[in-house]
Amino acid sequence: MSNLGQLDTDFYQSNYTIHDREQSYNDASAYGNPDGSGEQQAGGQLQPTSLIPPEMLTSSYPGQLFQPASNSDYYLQSPYITSFEEEPPLLEELGINFDHIWQKTLTVLNPMKPADGSIMNETDLTGPILFCVALGATLLLAGKFHFGYVYGMSAIGCLGIHALLNLMSSAGVSCGCVASVLGYCLLPVVILSSCAIFCSLQGTMGTLMALVVISWCSLSASKIFISALDMEGQQLLIAYPCALLYGLFTLLTVF
User: Fold this and answer.
1) What are the pLDDT digits (tens) for 125-179?
2) What pTM was estimated for this model as a whole?
3) Residue whose C-alpha is closest to residue 186's, from 147, 214, 225
4) Is 169 exposed, middle or buried (0-12, 13-18, 19+ CB in 10 A)?
5) CA geometry: angle at 55 spanning 52 and 59, to 5°?
6) Helix (H, G, I), strand (E, B) or coil at 85
7) How far apart are CA 253 and CA 255, in angstroms?
């Protein structure tokens, strides 16, 4: 007990009491609460202090919290916002135009019809691929499996005609355009191959039909090339190598 008394006498003696703490709290509230505790009075309203302007306490925010105000004029005037109806169709984005395919097919079927150079100068491979597959399918129905020959001769023929046209024309032509024209002009050979399913072409009638088909294909291809490349007066020069190419396809069909 004597030790506790000794500690009590040695402890630091201070004149601070609980009444002094309440007085300091009231003084801090009166001068704007400088300790940053953010406490409010019992009424729940913030009192005007030197740190908060009075107009911020009295004014109310007219909008809604966490919801930005919509501005319809921005979306109407923005060049990057487009409606779904203004987007082009999927087939047009892929470069497939059935109207142009039909016009090219009619141009090939009628060698005397003038060709539209703007349409024929397009790189459209939908029709050529379809006609190549149709030729291979008709040869298969006739008992001839020649898909490799069809694709191989098509590729080599496109490269050869492309090189020849670039030498003869000053404007030049793309390989895709050459492949498109040669593929569309393959349609008469597909018709001849369809006839080979029902009857044999190894005879006089078959030979005559083959010659007509070769002339038909070469004249259609040369007509389209001179129309697209402005090569007037050179149709026969272009028709000769085209006739050699389509002659190979005709030999596959007949024999």
Assistant:
1) 888 999 999 999 999 999 888 899 999 999 999 999 999 999 988 778 889 889 9
2) 0.63
3) 214
4) middle
5) 120
6) helix
7) 6
